[in-house]
């Protein structure tokens, strides 16, 4: 979790507590940073650490970033949602994509897992991993 230059991680944690610094690992699925030039830097499945030093919060994001045009991402989202609502009891394509990405399975298998889990993403991913 910490560089520390060879220092014992337990000792490092004690020192940080003495200085009033709390460190928490966050279970993030995606981090998006919107830039002034209209692009976004997107971290999928990142490692996120939150440090609170006497009321001042700092976030550290580790992962492989991908740049995308923010306008494209905004335009694509409503189109996907409108297509999904036309079918009776249809699983949203966005949910299928998440299961495909998280579980590393083909789209048809992800859709079947979502059907079996009544659309519950976490249950579908767990079902696929079994």
In spatial order, strands of the major sheet run 1-4-5
Order of helices and strands: HEEEEEEHHHH
Rg, Cα atoms, Å: 20 Å
Question: Rough shape?
Answer: extended
Protein structure class: alpha+beta
Percent helix: 40-55%
The number of helices is 5
Q: Roughly what fraction of the amino acids lie in strands?
A: 25-35%
* Biggest sheet features: 3 strands, antiparallel
Mean of pLDDT: 80
C-alpha end-to-end distance: 30 Å
What's the total count of β strands?
6
Instruction: List low-pLDDT spans.
Output: 78-88
In short:
This protein has helices spanning 9-18, 70-85, 93-103, 107-116, 121-129; strands at residues 21-26, 30-34, 39-44, 47-53, 56-62, 65-69. By secondary structure, the protein is of the alpha+beta class. The longest helix is centred in the middle third of the chain and has 16 residues, at 70-85.
If you had to describe this structure to a student in words, what would you say it looks like?
It is a single chain. This protein has about 130 residues and is of the alpha+beta class. Helices cover about 45% and strands about 30% of the residues. It is built from five helices and six strands. A three-stranded antiparallel β-sheet has the order 1-4-5. The chain has a three-stranded antiparallel β-sheet with strand order 2-3-6. Helix 3 packs across helix 4, helix 3 packs parallel to helix 5 and helix 4 crosses helix 5. The chain starts with 8 loop residues before the first helix and ends with a helix. About 10% of the residues have low confidence.
């Amino acid at each position: 979790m910490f560089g520390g230059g060879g220092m014992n991680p337990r000792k490092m944690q004690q020192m940080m507590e003495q200085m009033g610094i709390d460190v928490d690992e966050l279970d993030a699925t995606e981090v998006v940073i919107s830039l002034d030039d209209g692009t976004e830097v997107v971290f999928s499945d990142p490692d996120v650490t939150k440090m609170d030093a006497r009321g001042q919060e700092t976030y550290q994001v580790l992962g492989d970033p991908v740049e995308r045009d923010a306008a494209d991402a905004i335009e694509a989202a409503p189109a996907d949602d409108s297509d999904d609502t036309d079918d009776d009891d249809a699983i949203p394509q966005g949910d299928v994509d998440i299961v495909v990405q998280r579980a590393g399975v083909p789209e048809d298998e992800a859709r079947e897992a979502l059907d079996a889990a009544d659309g519950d993403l976490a249950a579908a991913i767990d079902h696929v991993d079994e």
